[in-house]
Amino acid sequence: MASPKFEWAACIGRFQLFHNAQLALLREALRLAPRCAVLVGSARQARSPRNPFTFEERVEAIRLALSEEERARVDFLAVRDVYDQKRWVQQVQATMAKLTGSERTRIVLVGHRKDPTGEYLNEFPGWPLHDAGRQGEVHGKSLRAALYSADSVDEALAALASQVPPAMIGFLRSWAQLPFLARLREEWAELAEEHDKWAMSPYPPVFVTVDAVVRIAGHVLLIRRGRAPGKGLLAVPGGFIEQRETAYQSAVRELQEETGFHLLASEMEHACKAMRIFDHPDRSQRGRVITHAFYFDLGERMLPEIAGSDDAAEARWVPIAELPSLEDQFHDDHFHILEAFLTSPAPD
Which of 28-42, 103-117, 196-210 has the lowest mean pLDDT? Predict the structure, then answer.
């Protein structure tokens, strides 16, 4: 028997409500190679309407849809969001190399370029792409909307039944008993209402926000959000830019309003070491949101007293060493904003 052309097939996705089209894609991958790696994106993101399931839950849902023989040939790999295409590709390739034991393993990438979001499939020149074509008109976003908008769990499952593997219905019925669905439905409804306000705009809205990363004595100042989106999640202080303010002025104002942190203007200006723009199209569930993040380093001193107010339910100083263990508790890309300033050299 001739050796297979490929040793491994790779399927990349978020699988945030595993559906029939994704199952067909996975089985096509198993047809092409003896082993398949399912690279599950957004693996460390907090629960949100866009990312309702944890990495472990998504692995369970996919495994339930496979036969015993198929499960024996599939490995699942966690892929973090980094909001940087080049770094993300490097992460995916390094993760695969660790799994296969070699960077020279013959890998085929299995996917479908259904729209511009599939352009990432072109970023792996060493992996031939097998475009499996459209596997039906099924979209994770619309399936999640059905889950959130139905009057009951039974109604939601009935709406999903024809578009997801049978095992997924049982998985969702059990998952719906956990204390997450009600909060996600509430947040989804608030986001939908906000999106409806802009539905008649002649152009898709682009929002401009500001954030403040404040570092003192090995700690960083964080808030716990008091409102949707991201209610209850950790974030850096920030908000929308005001019409008559510069981005810097808005960042300082939001910092004061949400945490009570206040220093002389000259001291704040001296402590401001960097500013970076974070503009990944998918960084916010609100839609297209571009933020200007300012980094303030006040060196070694006593931690000032703070208190959450305005949009912040809580404000606190968190040791920087503890941040990695909190990644899955952060709103949107705020963990990665911190990572950009605290683990890499600040720009000149």
Answer: 103-117
The domain made up of 8-182 is a member of CATH 3.40.50.620: yes
Q: How many residues does the chain have?
A: 348
List all residues 6 or more positions away from 78 whose beta carbon is below 8 Å from its beta carbon. Answer: 40, 43, 44, 55, 95
Distance CA 258, CA 133 (A): 49
- CATH 3.40.50.620 in the chain is located at 8-182
Is 14 within 8 Å of 38 (Cβ atoms)? no
Report how far residue 16's alpha carbon sits from residue 42's, in angstroms, rounded to the nearest whole number. Answer: 9
* Helix pair 153-160, 166-175: axis angle to 10 deg: 160
**Interval 247-272 mean pLDDT:** 95
Indicate the pTM of the whole model: 0.90
Q: What is the CATH number of domain 206-342?
A: 3.90.79.10
